[in-house]
Design brief:
The chain is α+β, with helices and mostly antiparallel strands. The chain has helices at 6-9, 63-73, 86-100, 104-108, 145-151, 157-185, 265-270, 324-334, 338-341; strands at 45-46, 55-57, 76-80, 119-121, 136-141, 201-209, 221-224, 230-234, 240-244, 248-251, 259-263, 280-282, 290-298, 304-305, 322-323. The protein is 27% helix and 19% strand. Helix 3 packs across helix 6 (157-185). The chain binds 2-oxoglutaric acid and fe (ii) ion.
Length: 344
């Protein structure tokens, strides 16, 4: 079976777009290669309690209705009482910290290959931006063992087991949410059989944002939408921002023991534009490092994404049919333009 990795093979990157800055001995001032803004730039991000991302309790009898509204208005929400055991979250967080605190040369042993999608390196979206991000990533597609053995030849099992377990838990939650959203969109049975199969294309993205000497001039993760049905993000610290039309960049303040769910481009297409795929980015801090774990839930690569014209969705198709693999290939080449390229 094809995997998502195949979609990137045809578009190899330069090593310069894969190797992160050596953050173990960071420069004392922000290098020009990482300076996105001038000191005088007003980047207009803000905190407004009246317009913050909804926090939804999964045990609330009204949860389905609230999730539907949040997906229409925000394309994102925080989820309390999500059912993922705390020890699974903490164990995964511990491994992520252990991985990123390794010496640079050890992490570089698992460097992503130029045409590859898994392993250690810069964000896959790096080539689309003129400046570099203050970030290191580690991408897991399928089993992490092949990459992790290069880093810890004799001691890889605990990391791999914890990641695998985390993915299993995330998959169950992603399935529940997807079934709920597909009910709202009135997706017919034959278009949703994949949800309960093991054939999905899931990706686990581990992110590390070191503390930064000039956080206001640098960028953790540049503005992007996700190429998924939905993404479940776990991070205890602030840094994530969502772009809201007419308002600007809104800070997300993680609620204790909650997960952040945002919808991706694939659901935006399936919902015929009814559910948003929010633009988001990550900002930095001068003294605090930040870690995040993003689980991308995606149908099998040969699944055809077709806009649903039933229910409350627009009755006229806004997008053409496109397979998951084809959409990933478009994204790998065109990035921010991708949705407009499948618009009718
Ligand atoms: O770190 C975060 O909060 C978000 C990460 C993210 O957007 C991504 O990995 O695509
Ligand atoms: Fe993202």
């Amino acid at each position: 079976m094809d995997t998502l990795s195949e979609a990137y093979k045809g578009i190899p990157l330069n090593l310069g777009d894969i190797i992160p800055l050596d953050f173990s001995s960071p420069p004392p001032t922000l290098p020009d290669s990482h300076a996105w803004f001038q000191p005088s730039d007003d980047d207009c991000s803000f905190d407004d309690p009246a317009s913050s991302m909804p926090i939804i309790d999964f045990l609330d009898p009204k949860a389905t209705e609230l999730i539907g509204l949040a997906c229409e208005k925000w394309g994102a929400f925080q989820l309390k009482n999500h059912g993922i055991p705390l020890d699974v979250i903490q164990g995964t967080e511990e491994e992520v910290k252990r991985l990123f605190s390794l010496p640079t040369e050890q992490k570089l042993k698992a460097l992503r290959s130029p045409g590859g999608a898994s392993g250690y390196g810069r964000a896959r979206i790096s080539p689309f931006f003129p400046k570099s991000m203050w970030h290191e990533g580690f991408t897991i597609i399928g089993s992490s063992a092949r990459d992790v053995k290069k880093i810890w030849p004799d001691d890889y099992a605990r990391f791999c087991d914890r990641m695998e377990n985390y993915e299993k838990e995330m998959k169950v939650l992603a399935e529940r949410l997807t079934e709920m959203l597909f009910d709202m969109l009135k997706i017919p049975e034959e278009k949703r059989k994949w949800v309960v199969t093991s054939d999905i294309s899931e990706v686990l993205q581990l992110n590390f944002f070191p503390s930064c000497p000039e956080p206001d001039r640098a960028m953790g993760l540049a503005p992007h939408t996700d190429t998924s049905i939905l993404t479940i993000v776990q991070s205890p610290s602030t840094g994530l921002q969502l772009f809201k039309e007419g308002k600007g960049w809104i800070n997300v303040h993680p609620h204790p023991n909650s997960l952040i769910v945002h919808l991706g481009d694939l659901l935006h297409i399936i919902s015929n534009g009814r559910f948003c795929s929010p633009l988001h980015r990550v900002t930095l801090n001068e003294t605090r490092k930040r870690y995040s774990i993003a689980y991308f839930y995606t149908p099998p690569v040969d699944y055809v994404l077709s806009p649903s014209l039933s229910g409350d969705n627009s009755p006229v198709a806004l997008f053409r049919d496109v397979t998951v693999k084809e959409y990933h290939e478009i994204r790998a080449q065109k990035f921010g333009n991708s949705l407009s390229l499948v618009r009718i």
